[in-house]
Design a protein that fits this description.
The chain has about 250 residues and is an alpha+beta fold. The chain has a domain of about 170 residues. A 6-stranded antiparallel beta sheet has the order 1-6-5-4-3-2, sandwiched between helices. A hairpin with a 2-residue loop joins strand 3 and strand 4. Helix 6 crosses helix 7. The longest helix is centred in the C-terminal third of the chain and has 16 residues. Pfam families: ATP11. One of its GO terms (biological process) is mitochondrial proton-transporting ATP synthase complex assembly. InterPro entries: ATP11.
Length: about 250
Amino acid sequence: MQRLASRASRRTLLCAVGVIQDNVSHCLVAKRSYSAASLPKHIEKLRKPAIPSDFLKWSGLGSYRTSKFASGFSPLQPKPLESIIDIKRSNSKTPEELADIWDDYHLGRGHIGASMDAKLYHLLKQRAENCRYFVIPLWKGSGYTTIFFQVQMPHMIFTGLEDYKARGTQAAPYFTVSHYTEFAESKELVLIRGDVVFTSKLSDSEAKWLMETAQSFYLNDVRYKLVERFNKETRDFEFKDVLQALEMPIL
């Protein structure tokens, strides 16, 4: 369903079309949008109430029964799209050309570049309005670490579940995702940029997998039922169902 595949880098193409911005060569070497030093001042409690805290049946997760467990993050400030690409020149490109350029530009930069159909974005946004939170097992070595994330479009914010349980809203994100909707109407295309905040926690490939998997739980009707259960029927939520959906072993 989703268009999230990156291609081999074609830097010559980026320079030739002049879409990627730079003061010298028109091929911007992008700076990381988020830094560890700047995170604390941007992380605040959400005004909206926490999701239900009675997670009583989480196999492998344990329970955490305080109201601060899932009060969420407020989004960090994303890098403006106009600071990454020349929007005026981009308007002359087809959706396929623009998606290719966007994907290729982000390769090897510590960022994840992807795109998706605008209709899928609107479905993701609609479903996230009522179900903002979920957990995903990330396989590492001979086991998995559990990632907790919040969807508050146009942002997705990922951190470790154990870090979040220990620090609440002061837990720093491992990985953030921003969706750019400037071309949603004209090209039916939404550009996606992922930033790995802590490379010691996640590799680029792991971050890409998390982004794609998180979106699949909101865009796939069967998987979305688990997201609904997590947010609305937490007493019935079983983490093993997520493992089974991802064909991971139950440890």
